[in-house]
Amino acid sequence: MRWLTVLLGAAILAAIAAVVVVLPDNRPTAVDTPSTPSASQTKSLPQPTTKEYTDDCGTFELQGVKKYAITGYWITPSSNPCTWRHQLEEIHQAGGDTVIRIGYGLQYRTVTDGRILKDGEVDPRYTDCENCWNQAEQDLKAANPGNRIGRTYVYRTDEHFGPGLFRCPGMERTIEAGKRVYYRLITAPDGSDDSTCDFSSKAGTYDLILIAAAAEDSLKKLLELGDTFGVQVFPSLPVAPRDPKASTRANPEHLGTLTTLTRRLMQDYGARFKDRASLGGFYQPFELQLGATLVNNPTLQIYAEQHDIVEQELPGKPILVSPYMDARKRVPFGQTPKQVAEGFRALAKSGVGIIAPQDSRGTGKVGLFWPDQRDDEVDKRLQPLVGVTTYGTAYHGSTRDYYREMSVVRDQLVDEGYEVELWANVESFEPSATQPCQPQGTRGKTDKPRLDAAIAMTGRYVQKVVSYMWSDFFTCGEPALKDEVAGDVDRPIAVDAIRTSSAGQDGIEVRGYHLDSGTITLNWPGGSSELPITVSDVPNEAMAEGIVTAWVPFDWSQVPYGVWVKVGVRSPAGKEATEPLHVRVSV
Q: Coiled coil located at which positions (predicted)?
């Protein structure tokens, strides 16, 4: 029962009461109590060395951080060189230490007269390199008249690569044309990437990968900014082509070519960035639904191939994935918490180091509610997805149920020797809005109270809380979500409460963010209590960074057995935690 032991300063709590406060369901205590999560792998962060940073984009503040519970954010590529600087300053000021980059996909293309097509038309992105395909085939035939190009792929990026990208410089090359730089790769269809570079001894059919890149390297700039602002960067792996018959799955026909491209990129990154403190790992962007069916999903083969390459070329750099969940009862693909936990296990065994499931509240596929709220009507913002109904009717379980089950499986996997972390990806948007945050799409602005509620539901079980995403969703609307967070960053957020005793005295232990002094409040049918915090700000190294522990004496005998108690926290300035914990006494 490791959850019932906690260090308070230098003293170990002397005893555990026979009755505990259980979060949040009806099962026996021994099942309900999760094993303790270990600290995050990503502790070795770059540290700013100056108070401010100045360049052509302005002067940027590197100190004065006000830390929020969310410490990582997705960002999108930008053509404006100053945009990322401002984004990383804002993320740094909010206490963020991680950014995850949205990336690009490998695409299979058809060719007519040597011209690259897209949806039946000539792709303007490759018109500056309109002779590239013909020249590649001519070079192959010069080596052996029987050589030919079998399949053609394209990959767009705003990066610029070094010589580590090429395996066979005699056949592969950089092509500068117009404002772009193109890279021509000639590869074997099976992904073997033969190091002999023998194109002449026998005829062969090869894949052409044509990369449309940039004159300057965006990743190098982003890593430099990461070093400056004390932020780790997770660049994106190339996204696999989708199966035309099932778009939610990767197409295994293109696995060989994807494997080669991934290997080449990792070799180049390894040559240039292996020792950069700001390179935290890599993001696997092909999105999957967590569930029992994931066990037999062929996409995991593609995951495993890419992840093996990363481990070979950049050992110690974890792969991060962020699958989504769907808890809706009225759709055939809705999954229970235990089914989602099975999918978590399958993902971890593919070589993933960090699994950050989308809480899926932003899409309306999972709801934020406590066990005693199953009969409550769903949040009006969820009604476009599930209708006017109750939480219990709409969903198989709440956000907290899903993360609890995944945390149990995660700890089992760690015991089996798998190095895997569970993060929470708290979605920072609403299912729909009259004013969407993006030019295309319907997702709209959310607010800080809803983010706080999601953190309260997930924080107990994870090693880190991140959010999709900073670009657009934290910056749109009036006031922008980033400004709401900045103005209310010190509001307490409770994530856990248990009954404990110290030196024979009954009490309650609360874990959460910003629990520095203030008051713990308890409310139950027919009673209430306000308890000044006397022991606080004790870091809990076993939980997400920023979570501390507060303990206060409290006589639990005054609370009737089986009733639900709302446990809140009030700061010395009078700020109440937005989302009180719903707990109850259980033997």
A: none
CA distance 238 to 261: 8
Angle, vertex CA 391, rays to CA 390 and CA 394, nearest 5: 85
**Three-state SS for 474?**
helix
Cα→Cα distances 149→55, 206, 296, 546, Å: 46, 5, 33, 55
Q: With a cut of 60, say whether residue 34 has pLDDT above it.
A: no
pLDDT number for residue 247? 85
Whether the CB-CB separation of 482 and 475 falls below 8 Å is answered with yes
CA distance to 78, 111, 146, 331, 446, per residue, from 441 (Å): 19, 32, 49, 22, 15
Alpha-carbon gap, residue 151 to 131, rounded angstroms: 16
Q: Which region among 37-51, 318-332, 424-438, 501-515 has the lowest average model confidence (pLDDT)?
A: 37-51
State pTM to two decimals. Answer: 0.91
- CA quadruple 333, 335, 339, 344: dihedral, nearest 10: 90
Tell me, what's the pLDDT at 43? 54
Q: Please give the share of the chain, as a percent, with pLDDT higher than 90.
A: 75
Residue 252, SS3?
A: helix
Longest distance between any two alpha carbons in the chain, whole Å: 90
| Separation of alpha carbons 33 and 306, rounded Å | 35
What was the pLDDT predicted at 1? 25
Assign 17 a pLDDT band (cuts: 50, 70, 90): very low
Query: Beta-carbon neighbour count of residue 251 at 10 Å?
Result: 19
Query: Containing H/E element for 399?
Result: helix 399-415
* Residue 209 CB contacts under 8 Å (≥ 6 apart), including other chains: 106, 153, 154, 155, 183, 184, 185, 187, 257, 260, 261
Distance CA 19, CA 50 (A): 51
Place of tokens 């024979």: 504
Q: What are phi and psi of 309, to 5 degrees?
A: -65, -45
The dihedral formed by the CA atoms of 274, 468, 252 and 410, expressed in degrees to the nearest 10: 80
Mean pLDDT to the nearest integer, 558-570: 95
Spatial separation of the C-alpha atoms in residues 117 and 111, rounded to whole Å = 6
Q: Is the pLDDT of residue 161 over 90?
A: yes
- Judged on CB neighbours under 10 Å (0-12, 13-18, 19+), 438 is middle
Name the one residue in this structure whose structure tokens are 């303007």: 124
Position with higher pLDDT, 401 vs 45? 401
Name 21's bridge partners. 585
Number of Cβ within a 10 Å radius of residue 131: 13
pLDDT band at 540 (very low <50, low <70, confident <90, very high): low
- Specify whether the CB–CB gap between 407 and 462 falls below 8 A: yes
CA distance 417 to 433: 45
Measured in degrees and rounded to the nearest 5, phi and psi for residue 250 equal: -80, 150
Residue in the block written with tokens 């713990």: 520
pLDDT in tens, 264-311: 999 999 999 998 999 999 999 999 999 998 888 889 988 999 999 999
